[in-house]
Write a structure and sequence with these properties.
The chain is α+β, with helices and mostly antiparallel strands and about 375 residues long. Helix content is about 25%, strand content about 30%.
C-alpha cells in the first residue's frame, strides 16, 4: 500500500485527491470505525451522493422485497457510484508487457508484473488477464472477450470475483457499483432496469422487477499470478490501467487487509469449524448447473500438489491442478478446467449464505483430495 504522490495527478482537485487517500487510510481500521469514517467520503466529492454510508434504505432501492436474507444487506460506507466501472479497457498482448514496463523504474508506474494476482478469463479461443489491483480500484469491469460481453464483479472484502455474461435474459445491460453489500460481496445495480440489484457473489437478481433471474456465469475463470497465467496461456492479452484512474490505482490497495485477520466490516455470522473464515477456498461445480458446490481449501490443494500435478474428478468434469510454475506466493495453479465452473474467495463467502450446504461441500472436497492423494501413492508404489 503506497502513499507516494503521483506527479501527474498531484494537481488534481481536492475532492478527487482526498477520496482515494481516505479509502486507503480506512483499510487500517476495522468494523464500525471504518463505516463511521467512510460516511464522510461522499460529502468530499462535491456532489450529492445517493446513500449515506450507513442505512441501506438511503441508497434508492426498494428493499422491502428481496430474494435474500434482508440482514445480509449492509451499506459499504460509500455512496452509490463511488467507484466508476472500467468500461472497454485497453488491452495489449501479454508478451508485450515486459517491454512496456522496462522503461518504468517505479512499481506504481508499471503495468502488471510477474507476481501480481490476475483474474484469467477464457472464452472460446480467447484469453484475457485482469490485474487484481485494477479490479480493486473499480470493482466493476465491463468488457468483451471472444465476442461475448461480460461483467466482472470484484468483492475485495471477501477476496472474490464473479464473471458473468453482461445481459439479463437476452437483453444487454450496463452495471454500476450500488454502494451496498450482500454478506460483504459487492451488489451491482443496472441503470437499465430501475431498482434492480444483482449479487456479485452468484449473479442473482435480489431486488427489483427482475428478481429471481440470474446472470449467466462464465465458467473458465481462474485466479492466478501473472507469471503463471502467461506461462499457461502465452497467447493471452492483458488489461492495462485506465490513464484517468492512475491516482486511484496507487491509493487503493487491499493487500494489508487480505493478509491480516481483521474485518473492515464485521460479518453477520462466521463459521465455527476448523477452517477459519478468512482462509481461501476454491469452490467447484459442473458448469451450467445449479448443483451444490464442492469446496476445496487451498491449503489442502497445496498438500495435494506438493509432489506434482493432480486431477480431481468433480461432478461431470475434471479439474487439473499443479504447483505454480514461477516463484510466487500462489500455492496452486489451475492447469485445465473441463466442464466446470470455479469460484475463488474466502471460506466466509462460500459458507455464510447456506452453512449446511457449504460444510457438506467442504467435506466432499476434502474427501476428493484425500482419494486423489491415496490413488497417486498407490500408483507410485
Amino acid at each position: 500500500m503506497t502513499t507516494e504522490s503521483d506527479p501527474e495527478q498531484a494537481s488534481a482537485g481536492s475532492g478527487s485527491t482526498l477520496l482515494p487517500i481516505i479509502l486507503v487510510t480506512l483499510l487500517g481500521l476495522s468494523g464500525a470505525a471504518a463505516v463511521a469514517t467512510w460516511g464522510v467520503v461522499g460529502m468530499l466529492s462535491g456532489e450529492s451522493p445517493i446513500g449515506d454510508g450507513r442505512d441501506p434504505s438511503s441508497y434508492g432501492f426498494d428493499l422491502s422485497n428481496v430474494a435474500i436474507d434482508a440482514d445480509a444487506i449492509v451499506a459499504s460506507g460509500n455512496p452509490r457510484d463511488f467507484l466508476s466501472p472500467l468500461v472497454s479497457p485497453v488491452v495489449i498482448a501479454g508478451t508485450e508487457v515486459a517491454g512496456l514496463n522496462a522503461s518504468n523504474k517505479r512499481k506504481w508506474q508499471k503495468e502488471v508484473v510477474s507476481g501480481d494476482r490476475v483474474v484469467g478469463v477464457r472464452i472460446g479461443d480467447s484469453t484475457r488477464a485482469y490485474p487484481m489491483f485494477i479490479l480493486d480500484a473499480h470493482e466493476v469491469v465491463l468488457d468483451e472477450v471472444g465476442g461475448v460481453s461480460i461483467v466482472l464483479a470484484r468483492s475485495p472484502l471477501v477476496d472474490e470475483v464473479g464473471v458473468y455474461e453482461r445481459r439479463l435474459d437476452a437483453t444487454p445491460v450496463d452495471f454500476g457499483v450500488s454502494g451496498l453489500l450482500d454478506d460483504l460481496s459487492v451488489l451491482l445495480y443496472t441503470p437499465d432496469v430501475e431498482g434492480t440489484l444483482i449479487s456479485g457473489h452468484d449473479g442473482r437478481v435480489i431486488a427489483g422487477p427482475r428478481i429471481g433471474e440470474r446472470l449467466v456465469p462464465v465458467p473458465e475463470v481462474v485466479v492466478s499470478t501473472w507469471q503463471d497465467w502467461l506461462a499457461r496461456h502465452p497467447g493471452t492479452d492483458v488489461v492495462l490501467r485506465d490513464s484517468e484512474s492512475l491516482q486511484r490505482y496507487r491509493r487503493v490497495s487491499y493487500d494489508r487487509y487480505l493478509d491480516g485477520d481483521d474485518w473492515i466490516i464485521p460479518p453477520r455470522r462466521t463459521p465455527s469449524g476448523d477452517l477459519a473464515s478468512r482462509r481461501r477456498v476454491l469452490s467447484v461445480r459442473t458448469a451450467g448447473t445449479a448443483e451444490d458446490w464442492t469446496i476445496l481449501p487451498l491449503d489442502s490443494i497445496e498438500t495435494a500438489t506438493a509432489t506434482g500435478g493432480i486431477d480431481l474428478p468433480i461432478g461431470a468434469g475434471t479439474l487439473r491442478l499443479a504447483r505454480p510454475v514461477g516463484d510466487s506466493n500462489d500455492r496452486v495453479d489451475v492447469v485445465a478446467i473441463e466442464g466446470l465452473e470455479l469460484r475463488f474467495g474466502f471460506w466466509q463467502a462460500a459458507w455464510v449464505r447456506d452453512p449446511d450446504a457449504a460444510e457438506a461441500g467442504l467435506e466432499r472436497g476434502r474427501a476428493i483430495i484425500d482419494r486423489a492423494i491415496s490413488a497417486r501413492k498407490q500408483d507410485a508404489s
